Amino acid sequence: MTIDVPAIPRTPAARLRWALSDGWTLTRRALTHWARRPAQVVVGLLFPVMVVLMFRYLFGGQMRVPGGGGYAEFLLPGMYAMTMAFGLETTFAAISGDAAKGVTDRFRSLPMASSAVVTGRAAADLLNSALALALMIACGLAVGWRWHDGPGRALAAFGLLLLLRFALLWAGIYLGLVAGNPELLAAVQILVWPVGFLSNVFAAPSTMPGWLGAVAEWNPLSATVSAARELFGNPGWGGGSWAARHSLLLAVLWPALITAIFFPLSVRRFRRLGSG
């Protein structure tokens, strides 16, 4: 029996169509897996909601909001960004799990675009993160969070949150390909959680030791949180540093830089798997 292997497209336009088609095929694969294991998806979606409820009702009474205002309106933009950042763990687990099971090697043996595995995973995880963000928004509205500067600026804030998630997708994909073992998720958590909390989500950088406060202010997560609070019209820490005054600019530049670094690294790493 002979198997006809499709020819590799020659023109740039044909290659792009080929890559998009293969990427969408692998996106549907991930969505199908989630549909068959809904409990795993539900647990992942409900965890950030439980964290919001815990901070809102267990600790909220002791929190002083800078400049006044409701604690929920201060808390929720930070929790939205934290949810996007911690999604990196989901991406890492999926990519490293496929590598450990040999699925990635099977994909490499197929006549498919080399970028499809990473772009397919990125698209699927971004859809999942959009659903998680929508659930978090509903939770925020339920506990008293509101935006105050119109729907246009609110949509821009949501866009910046998803932009951060999109950038961190590529970091998660690259780390997953490098590790190739889902059991190393704990090591990624050791990296992600300190970076998440070393930000302006819960504490003002001005209250930290000088060098630590500078690190927190220049944290990409801090830029997105500050920009989201500004666009929502929610209270924030403020600050006179360059990073604090240009958070909107940094909320775009940081994700662009992270993507520019980790996207080509992810595709290159995938191409070199198994080459020694």
UniProtKB/TrEMBL annotation:
Membrane topology annotation: Multi-pass membrane protein
Q: What is its main location?
A: membrane
Q: Which UniProt keywords apply?
A: Antibiotic resistance, Cell membrane, Membrane, Transmembrane, Transmembrane helix, Transport
The ABC transmembrane type-2 domain is annotated at 39-273
Is DNA-binding tagged as a keyword? Answer: no
Which residue windows are transmembrane per the record? Answer: 38-59, 79-100, 130-148, 154-177, 184-203, 248-267
Q: Where in the cell is it found?
A: Cell membrane; Membrane
Transmembrane among the record's keywords? yes
Q: Which family does it belong to?
A: Belongs to the ABC-2 integral membrane protein family.
Protein name per the record: Transport permease protein
| Source organism of this protein record | Actinoallomurus vinaceus
